[in-house]
Amino acid sequence: MRAMRATARDIFRYALDECSIERGFSRNIHYERDILQVGSDLYDLDTFSRVFVISFGKAAHTSLEALLSRLGAGTGATGIVCAPTLPDSFAFGFRYFQGGHPIPNRESLRAADAILRALETMNGRSLVIYLISGGGSSVVEKPISEEISFEDLAQTHEALVHSGAPIAQINAVRKHLSAVKGGRLALAASPAHQLSIMISDVPENTIASLASGPTMPDLSTVEQCYDIVRQYNLLPQLPESVRELLLTRQLEETPKPNDLPFERARWWSVLSNISAQKATVERAAINGFAIQIDNTCDDWDYRKAADYLLKRVRELRKGVSRACLISGGEVTVKIDGKPGTGGRNQQFALYCAEHIEGENIAVLSAGTDGIDGNSPAAGAIVDGSTVARAIEKGLSPQAALEGFDAYPFFEALGDTIVTGFTGTNVRDIRVLLAW
Fold first, then answer.
1. H or E element at residue 407
2. Tens digit of pLDDT for each residue in 369-412?
3. Is the Cβ–Cβ distance between 277 and 429 less than 8 Å?
4. Class of domain 21-271
5. Of 195, 242, 318, 370, which residue is the least packed, with the fewest Cβ within 10 Å?
6. What is the DSSP string of 105-171?
7. Nearest Cα residue to 270 out of 380, 195, 339, 343
8. Cα–Cα separations (whole angstroms), residue 23 to 133, 195, 391, 433
9. Cα-Cα-Cα-Cα dihedral sign, residues 222, 228, 231, 235
10. Measured between alpha carbons, how far is 425 from 19 in angstroms, rounded to an integer?
11. What is the CA radius of gyration of the chain?
12. CB 255 within 8 A of CB 187
């Protein structure tokens, strides 16, 4: 079982390497003789009076570094960068902000103000390049109403994050409460030409929810927001200023697909969870596994998702010597009471441990950003021996599960997945091996 755990770690590490920002940019972005090519779009940078870059999210620093290494100094690009961390070195001509994640901080608000002021100066000969990655929803933020204080904003984000709602629904509400989300950055930058280069941590068919879609037309509506708040009984957890907007139905609609700002806007996803899944398949194939991908349980409750995936991998291993089931996306965890240390990946893995006791199954679940909840781990790995090994050490899997305190449990066993901050973010990957 130790060897199988090592194999699962190797598969995940390979996927991380293949999902680096540099490799994603190398496959999709090229620059030669003043022509910037992104996907099939071409931009002659000589025709623009100004090139302004706004990079924000968990991959903000690595994305900017990859872009500037291609453009060089001749373009005179300047801009703003906002991420949960500060870089080791700072690019000339760029302002840096250290925004909060998963809850906005005061730097998040300062970053939003700086971006909006800069976009007001753009004209029809300006090119605004957005480098957007997961985490952008919190690192850059400004309330739609002056009545919503910073404390109210933080309380609202925390209530949404802990609601158990899928990320697309969380972001629908965020968009309508924000001055920068749901296409409102694009509105502020109009009539400039706008190019969004995205490192996606959202489902493939919901790209407009990445960082709450600041540069894209928003398909969600105010009516959906009212329904989401009602469905998850959020009103009691929200501050009075936000409750007032919702109860009196004063939310304003976000920019829609046919609105003017989007006539000069383009969007390209250069890395996504599909990229991670393809790399995982490549590595698992080299190790001789029969492989299937199943993303059915994306955004499911972690217990329901675990039950489903364990059933699938047991079915897959019938008739083969080594089976590998790959599942991309995220699971949800509704937190009751005060949580311990951990995250959705470790919670998922710990639940699996109790349901594969004694079986020849290994389960790895981890985030490609290197962060799982409020822990220093990206995730964890379990197998049929996890529960027995825990009991030998005097650990209680059930207590850790009920207390949302999985990290200390896995750290004591040496079964955490610790990568450090990876500089990329394309959602979570689950690898289930059976033999």
1. helix 406-413
2. 999 999 999 999 999 999 999 999 999 999 999 999 999 999 99
3. yes
4. alpha beta
5. 318
6. -HHHHHHHHHHHHHHTT--TTEEEEEEEETTHHHHS--BSSTTS-HHHHHHHHHHHHTS---HHHHH
7. 195
8. 15, 20, 43, 27
9. negative
10. 8
11. 22
12. yes
DSSP string, 225-254: HHHHHHHTT-GGGS-HHHHHHHHTT-PPPP
Place of tokens 């959705």: 344
Q: What does the alpha-carbon distance between residue 361 and residue 7 come to, in Å, rounded to a whole number?
A: 12
Buried b (16+ CB within 10 A) or exposed e, 20-29: bbebbbeeeb
Q: Is the pTM of this model over 0.70?
A: yes
Distance CA 418, CA 45 (A): 41
Q: Are 87 and 96 in contact (CB under 8 A)?
A: yes
Residue spans of alpha helices (H) in 356-405: 386-392, 397-402
Sorted by sequence, the CB contacts under 8 Å of residue 354 that are 6+ apart come out as: 387, 397, 398, 401
CATH of domain 2-11+274-434: 3.40.1480.10
Asked, as a colleague might, if the bond just before 166 is cis with ω within 30 of 0, I would say no
Q: Please tell me the predicted confidence (pLDDT) of residue 91.
A: 97
The domain segmentation of the chain, as residue ranges, is: 2-11+274-434, 21-271
Query: Which pair of structure tokens corresponds to residue 136?
Result: 């952008």
Return d(Cα 45, Cα 60) in angstroms, integer. 22
DSSP state of 1: -
